[in-house]
């Protein structure tokens, strides 16, 4: 499998658009830009969501869960609300990124018919994001499996596009990583190695630029030196190796999901930001999204419950 491409997001309105796939609805839109997007062009913002995870509420609330009988009506309602809120934002965000677990059913070991229905509904809902707002999808463990295989990675790439990639936007370099290659690459060590070599090349190519990263699983929940959690963070040895690599390359912001609660902390002055879910909450937060403002010398962010997402985004 070839390494993912580097994409650039142009200033709206977009002239060129590549539709990577068309299954009932156009989804995962990458926009072809120019070298101008490698140059700072002024303050902007983007929207980060995570874990819409169609079907998870049914799984959690039914002790006798049967995948073929699952429903995701509440997740559909919340996802539709998220899309409406993003579409009403002014000025328009430069992009809308969803950090993993797009649907709940696993690609193996579950009900594949239910998985396909969830994917179909995800695409139907999120295809309603306005065309001038690029939609960027990040893979999560429920999208490629806790222990991914070549087959599950290929299936994800067929459904949603690359599982790791980079793009420029207004002079900022964005890197999207597949966190399952760090969590459990047992069946795909060659893909994990490929991603890490690619990451090295991307960090080198963007040296001197602001670099912001995304993945699904966070490196840590609260502290960079915390013990490994079987579900919610990355093994400390892998974690510190990659965090040190990112820090030395100038990365100072890393955005994740997966935890279904807001969280995060710092590795030196690299901020790890965990954004709670659009879907099911496992803590005291409400379903929501994060607005991330990018200025030339500062990145700031705020989480909003869906009902409280503002219509207008102001820069001080």
TrEMBL record:
One of its GO terms (molecular function) is protein serine/threonine phosphatase activity. Pfam families: Metallophos. InterPro entries: Calcineurin-like_PHP (IPR004843), Metallo-depent_PP-like (IPR029052), MPP_CSTP1 (IPR041867), STPP_CPPED1 (IPR051918). It is an enzyme of class 3 (hydrolase). It is found in: Cytoplasm. Residues 84-261 form the Calcineurin-like phosphoesterase domain. It comes from the Eukaryota. Gene3D superfamilies: 3.60.21.10. GO terms for cellular component: cytoplasm. Its cofactor is a divalent metal cation. Its EC number is 3.1.3.16. SUPFAM superfamilies: Metallo-dependent phosphatases. Belongs to the metallophosphoesterase superfamily. CPPED1 family. PANTHER family: METALLOPHOSPHOESTERASE, CALCINEURIN SUPERFAMILY (PTHR43143), SERINE_THREONINE-PROTEIN PHOSPHATASE CPPED1 (PTHR43143:SF1). This is Serine/threonine-protein phosphatase CPPED1. It comes from Parthenolecanium corni. The lineage of its organism: Eukaryota, Metazoa, Ecdysozoa, Arthropoda, Hexapoda.
């Amino acid at each position: 499998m070839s390494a993912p491409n580097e994409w650039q997001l142009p200033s709206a309105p977009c002239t060129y658009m590549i539709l990577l796939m068309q299954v009932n609805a156009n989804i995962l839109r990458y926009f072809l830009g120019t070298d101008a997007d490698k140059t700072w062009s002024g303050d902007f913002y983007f929207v980060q969501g995570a874990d819409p995870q169609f079907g998870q509420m049914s799984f959690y609330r039914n002790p006798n869960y049967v995948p073929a009988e699952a429903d995701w009506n509440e997740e559909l309602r919340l996802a539709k609300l998220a899309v409406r809120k993003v579409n009403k934002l002014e000025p328009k965000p430069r992009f809308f990124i969803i950090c993993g677990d797009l649907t709940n059913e696993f690609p193996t070991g579950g009900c594949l018919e239910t998985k396909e229905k969830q994917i179909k509904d995800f695409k139907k809902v999120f295809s309603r994001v306005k065309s001038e707002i690029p939609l960027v999808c990040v893979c999560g463990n429920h999208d490629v499996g806790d222990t991914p295989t070549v087959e599950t990675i290929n299936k994800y790439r067929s459904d949603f596009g690359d599982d790791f990639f980079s793009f420029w936007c207004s002079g900022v370099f964005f890197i999207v990583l597949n966190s399952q290659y760090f969590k459990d690459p047992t069946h795909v060590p060659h893909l994990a190695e490929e991603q890490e070599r690619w990451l090295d090349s991307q960090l080198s190519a963007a040296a001197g630029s602001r670099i912001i990263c995304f993945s699904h699983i966070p490196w840590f929940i609260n502290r960079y030196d915390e013990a490994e959690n079987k579900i919610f963070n990355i093994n400390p040895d892998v974690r510190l190796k990659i965090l040190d690599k990112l820090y030395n390359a100038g990365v100072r912001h890393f955005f994740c999901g997966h935890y279904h609660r807001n969280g995060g902390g710092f590795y030196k002055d690299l901020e790890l930001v965990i954004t709670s879910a659009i879907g099911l909450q496992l803590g005291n937060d409400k379903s929501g999204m994060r607005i991330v403002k990018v200025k030339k010398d500062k990145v700031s962010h705020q989480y909003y419950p869906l009902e409280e997402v503002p219509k207008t985004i102001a820069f001080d």
